[in-house]
């Protein structure tokens, strides 16, 4: 009788522990969903980082503005599509035709958030043409709230002037301000310049969710890597695979 009573008590404890664990998981999921919702509903993250709204270095003068995928004008949509084609068609090679269709859907998503880069008007130029953009979203990866960079695209004449690094630093500030656990992005293996930029200059790591780390054999067949920079212990453990 005593052993049966002990077993029943043990089962009750186990049941309570499971319920507590399940409640904790649901509460955490709810909290993460609320973080994503709050970050996504912010009209402009740039208002918190006014010093980053202008970039004047290396003979380049630009200013930034926010945008969202469901509020893009026809001319801006066309600009994004054209710049993507110019910068990425060679990188994707024969995969570009299919990839272009996916990207065209992505750019107008209501979840898409943008930072647009405009040239600053001067004595010879009274307009402020677009010269690049960053497309990002707030989402969950392995139940970790992250800022996912879908695109960072710059016209050739503004590249190599520190602007890309400046924009990624701003993205990381936005991610931290929004309580995201990491910044995550996908880069094509064929894009050696981009991989060097992220890994050497910005210290991003190949994520534990990248195909090459999930399954090295599968990774060989895939044309991309997933990179990340985590900000807290949990995100580092799950997305970088470091304790």
Walk me through the structure.
The chain is of the alpha+beta class. The chain has 2 domains: about 1-40; about 40-240, 3-Layer(aba) Sandwich (Aminopeptidase), CATH 3.40.630. The protein is built from 8 helices and 8 strands. The protein has helices at about 1-40, 75-90, 95-105, 165-175, 190-200, 210-215, 215-220, 235-240, and strands at about 55, 60-70, 115-120, 130-140, 145-155, 180-190, 205, 225-230. The protein has an 8-stranded mixed sheet, sandwiched between helices. A hairpin with a 2-residue loop joins strand 1 and strand 2 (about 60-70). Helix 2 packs antiparallel against helix 3 (about 95-105). It is globular and about 90 Å long.
What's the topology here?
Layout: H1 2-41, E1 54-57, E2 60-68, H2 74-92, H3 96-106, E3 113-119, E4 130-141, E5 144-154, H4 163-177, E6 182-188, H5 192-201, E7 205-206, H6 211-214, H7 216-221, E8 224-230, H8 233-240
Parallel strand pairs: 5-6
Antiparallel strand pairs: 1-2, 2-3, 3-4, 4-5, 6-8, 7-8
């Amino acid at each position: 009788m005593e052993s049966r009573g002990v077993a029943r008590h043990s089962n009750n404890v186990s049941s309570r522990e499971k319920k507590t664990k399940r409640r904790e998981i649901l509460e955490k999921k709810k909290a993460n969903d609320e973080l994503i919702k709050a970050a996504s509903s912010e009209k402009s993250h740039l208002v918190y980082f006014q010093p980053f709204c202008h970039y004047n270095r290396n003979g380049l003068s630009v200013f930034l503005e926010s945008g969202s995928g469901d509020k893009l004008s026809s001319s801006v949509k066309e600009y994004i599509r054209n710049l993507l084609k110019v910068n990425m068609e060679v990188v994707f090679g024969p995969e570009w035709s299919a990839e272009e269709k996916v990207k065209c859907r992505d750019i107008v998503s209501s979840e898409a958030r943008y930072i647009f880069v405009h040239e600053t008007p001067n004595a010879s130029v009274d307009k402020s043409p677009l010269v690049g953009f960053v497309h990002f979203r707030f989402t969950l990866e392995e139940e970790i709230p992250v800022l996912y960079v879908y695109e960072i695209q710059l016209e050739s004449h503004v590249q190599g002037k520190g602007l890309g690094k400046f924009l990624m630093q701003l993205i990381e500030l936005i991610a931290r301000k929004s309580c995201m656990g990491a910044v995550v992005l996908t880069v094509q293996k064929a894009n050696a310049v981009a991989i060097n930029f992220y890994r050497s200059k910005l210290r991003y790591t190949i994520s534990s969710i990248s195909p090459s780390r999930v399954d090295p054999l599968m990774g060989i067949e895939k044309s991309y890597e997933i990179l990340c920079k985590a900000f807290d212990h949990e995100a580092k453990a799950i997305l970088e695979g470091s304790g």
